[in-house]
Amino acid sequence: MKYMISWFERPQGSPTEYENAQKRILEVFTQWKAPANFKIELFVVRVGEWGGHMLVDCDDPLAVHKVCSTWPAFEFQARPVIAVEDAVRVELEAIAWRDGLKPE
After folding, report:
1. What residue ranges define each of the domains in the chain, with the CATH number in brackets?
2. Residues 64-92: pLDDT tens digits?
């Protein structure tokens, strides 16, 4: 299953607390290793923000949850996603089925 994981910075306290949180985030990140069953296909940061997006392929939702739990200074959203060509194919199948219904 593919997931689009997005993260957004949580509001911090004082400027000093915020700076310390940023340092801790980078300290943890530089030592972090992705789980073996967690294939990162895209990993980007939104310009001008402390947040970004990661497209991963992972068969274990617990691994996704664990990754999202690693950085409590961020709010995470993990959404299952499918390829657009697959979505279009099944949408066309659904439309064809619906169009084939007999009027009541």
Report:
1. 2-100 (3.30.70)
2. 999 999 999 999 999 999 999 999 999 99
